[in-house]
Please model this.
Amino acid sequence: MYILTIGSHSSLQILHGAKKEGFRTVLVTPEKRVKFYTQFAFIDEVYGYKNEDEAVEYINSFANNGILIPHGSLVEYIGPERVNKIKTKIFGNRNLFEWEANQKKKMSLLKNAKIKIPEQFENPEDIDRLVIVKLPGAKGGRGYFIARNKNEAKEGLNKLLEQKMIRSIDEVIIQEYVVGVPMYFQFFYSIILNRLEIIGIDIRYETNIDGLRRLPPDIKVDPTLVVIGNIPAVARESLLPTVYEYGENFVNTVKELVPPGMIGPFCLESVVTDQGDIVVFEFSGRIVAGTNLYVNGSPYSWLYWDEPMSAGRRIGREIKLAINSNKLDQVLT
Ligand code: ATP
Model:
């Protein structure tokens, strides 16, 4: 059996883990990156594509003997229409892609799961507090802005319209800006073992907002939120039961609203306030790049496995467990 993924995001970790679990590994990547990826011995085949159609064709040549592992760059690199043409089975629930692409649907799913989310404003006129304005399909936070009040928000929105970054304000999501510390809770839901695992926590390192504290306080620079990397974190242990409950609620709600339900890794992206509230402003229904911190396992994955268990390896392990118990079709869509 071959495990395939697109060369970017968390592909090294995914294939490293797949190899450890005994699979043949294939990386599909734009041609110019072939040299970079060829240096890793755990990748059996590196395929460089000239265009995305070629990539899909190659992925489809593994329809009978391969599994594609999706990550945050799959839809971005291949495009949503082409992703629909992928015939090779993917690990996870492909019906979640559509929910992930729509910020409003995304927030409604969290709300349904009874997870605390930031206040949302449909009409800029109703804004009565500090807000963050988010663009659709933003690549790592580009174009997002923070506004102190409704006038600043309207000004910012007009600028986005003028610059043609959006066509109408219905495309953006306006959320209360929650003051606290960000924490991204990484989970793995195992259908085969019928259990939810907390597999790690990270903090996203964003420019320039995380650099502003280096400046003297009288120098005012508008913050931007472009993701550059990730920093490891552990949470106060007393927060974990709530985090776990959120994870369970999420799994139950996805099962109800997006059949066949959650399969494998996901992440609840949160801000923790000084009242100990965990407010989730976003989720990812697949492996997140913050798990790259834990190629050798995280402080949490150790507790479940007592062996180095990255998210990538956990995916490989789940596939292996599924094959051995004749349940492979339950983890693929
Ligand atoms: P993606 O997973 O799409 O790359 P993300 O998980 O980083 O994005 P976004 O919703 O795109 O999350 O937000 C980007 C950044 O903006 C977050 O990392 C966080 O620092 C900040 N942020 C987003 N929403 C809020 C909020 N409601 N309150 C406070 N900060 C927020």
About this structure: The chain has three domains: 2-90, 119-176, 180-309+317-330. The radius of gyration is 20 Å.
